[in-house]
Amino acid sequence: MQQISWDDFEKVELRIGTIVDAMKFPDARRPAYKLKVDFGELGIKTSSAQITKHYTLSGLIGRQIIGVINFPKKQIGKFMSEFLVTGFADENGDIVLSAVERKVPNGSKLV
Asked: pLDDT tens across 83-97, in order?
């Protein structure tokens, strides 16, 4: 594992946001959803996430997640991803979303 400095860590904008919309993403190479996430004063941003094994579209609405919002935008087919959804792989390699224990204001930065 490569070590990083505190300055390196501070550059990563890990922010909390609330999922306001979730849609199927049939054009994705691997099963995925398109998400719209409210990051408070930072605005609503879109991303895709390969989270179809553990989550339903309706079950995602209102859920707070952690995203990296300062990566460059990434073109995924005809879709533009504006942030990285964070999560951990379970024992089968399926993604479990990173989240907070209690609700916090949208846009809050991980400290």
From this structure: 999 999 999 999 999
Q: Do 106 and 40 contact (CB within 8 A), yes or no?
A: yes
Tokens matching residue 48:
């895709």
Q: Where are the alpha helices (DSSP H) in 1-89?
A: 6-11, 57-60
The yes-or-no verdict on residue 76 having pLDDT over 90 is: no
78 burial level (CB within 10 Å; 0-12, 13-18, 19+): exposed
Question: pLDDT (tens digit, 9 = 90+) per residue, 22-44?
Answer: 999 998 889 999 999 999 999 99
pLDDT (mean) for 68-78: 92
Return all residues near 83 (Cβ < 8 A) that are at least 6 apart: 37, 39, 45, 46, 47, 67, 68, 69, 71
**Strand boundaries in the chain, DSSP class E:** 14-24, 33-38, 44-49, 64-68, 74-76, 79-81, 84-85, 87-89, 95-97
Residues with Cβ within 8 Å of 109's Cβ and at least 6 positions away in sequence, in order, are 13, 14, 15
